[in-house]
Amino acid sequence: MAEVRFRISISLDGYTAGPNQSAEQPLGEGGEDLHEWVTSLAAWREGHGREGGDDNPSTEAFEIQNRNIGAQVMGRNMFGPGPGPWPEDPPWNGWWGDDPPFHVPVFVVTHHEREPLELTDTTFHFVTDGVEAAIGRAKEAAGDRDVLLAGGANVAQQAIGAGLVDELHLSLVPILLGGGERLFDGVADSVKGFEQVRSIEAPGVTHLTYRRLG
Amino acid sequence: MAEVRFRISISLDGYTAGPNQSAEQPLGEGGEDLHEWVTSLAAWREGHGREGGDDNPSTEAFEIQNRNIGAQVMGRNMFGPGPGPWPEDPPWNGWWGDDPPFHVPVFVVTHHEREPLELTDTTFHFVTDGVEAAIGRAKEAAGDRDVLLAGGANVAQQAIGAGLVDELHLSLVPILLGGGERLFDGVADSVKGFEQVRSIEAPGVTHLTYRRLG
């Protein structure tokens, strides 16, 4: 049975993207620093057609976060800038060019209908009836494999709050963003805590894994 | 030369105490769960006149956090409920009874003047001219040893924001408090980040050490 995993990089003050997100700055001001640990890894670079890179304890965390993925779920803001209807001329086809790095079906939670978009071996499906429906469809598509909830904060909050996330992987980076999207806002009413599974110390980041209680 | 260390337990959503702090609930609703890792340690219990307890990787973190302390600094809310002038009948002498567990001079940052209070081998000094002054006096009292900034969030924010904290020790507990005092609010304007020194994985908690950049 497919499990749902959420992994995200988070600042010490709890933000998963910086303030003032835009098409030019999809991660907001300062948000790119959250992902330096991963974009500098040889394991990540290989999957994104780039050479070189590091091998350090973050490699293990990266592999744990990404193993056995059969489908992904993401929010509208992770797929593209918003809000509002999808632009048609030119169409917005994601941040990743013609060969997105997912290689599995991706379910995008949005208020706006759109036909599926196939780019190389990744098909984006646009789901307008909410996070739970998107996760349900992703589980079906994943079969025996797991579903990766890719982000952003809003979709993750809804999924965590509804008890739909089995495993939570946080890569905690010691920067302060001071604004942006805060991961755990509005979640505490329904979720009181998690069981700690492991933590991995790596250069400039600590990777924390938690499991849903109950 | 004395260094200034700040150590605090923090929830996954960034709070160092729960909502609705009071004399009956000095850590706020749910806040006691932040400290279970330490109050269950044999090393802590011994220092607080209690028997039994655990020995696990948290012991090492506890010893690192508390080694070589020559003086402490704390905020008014950590010493007692507030705000307002000190009550006189009966006087408020802290949460810890007649034998407080500090055994070094403690400098309490407050808006309200008060004579020093000596309880067994701990003397509380009440400092009305701000956090920087309190840390200065604590450094003087500590001599060759270090100053521990004990909390709470407000005093810590001021000290971190002013670049007065050399080492930051966070014990990250995977609970969600949903409200209360948030450690890093208002700090990001002056501090952009920290250097990660180490992290220690322990049962139900990860201990993170950071150092001030620059």
Notes on the protein architecture:
Two copies of one chain form a homodimer. By secondary structure, chain A is of the alpha/beta class. Chain A has one domain (4-212): Dihydrofolate Reductase, subunit A (3-Layer(aba) Sandwich), CATH 3.40.430.10. Chain A has six helices and eleven strands. In chain A, the strands form two sheets. In chain A, strands 5-6-4-3-7-1-8-11-10 form a nine-stranded mixed β-sheet, with helices on both faces. In chain A, strands 2-9 form a two-stranded antiparallel ribbon. In chain A, a hairpin with a 2-residue loop joins strand 10 (194-202) and strand 11. The relative contact order of chain A is 0.25. The model of chain A has no long low-confidence stretch (mean pLDDT 93). At the A-B interface, strand 10 and strand 11 of A face strand 10 and strand 11 of B.
Kindly report the name of the CATH homologous superfamily of chain A: Dihydrofolate Reductase, subunit A
User: Which architecture of chain A would the CATH scheme give at its second level?
Assistant: 3-Layer(aba) Sandwich
Classify the secondary structure makeup of chain A into a structural class.
alpha/beta
Helix share, percent of chain A: 10-25%
Give the termini distance of chain A in whole angstroms: 17 Å
Which of globular, elongated, flat, extended, rod-shaped describes the shape of chain A? globular
Number of helices of chain A: 6
Largest interface: A-B, 34 and 34 residues
Widest β-sheet, arrangement of strands of chain A: 5-6-4-3-7-1-8-11-10
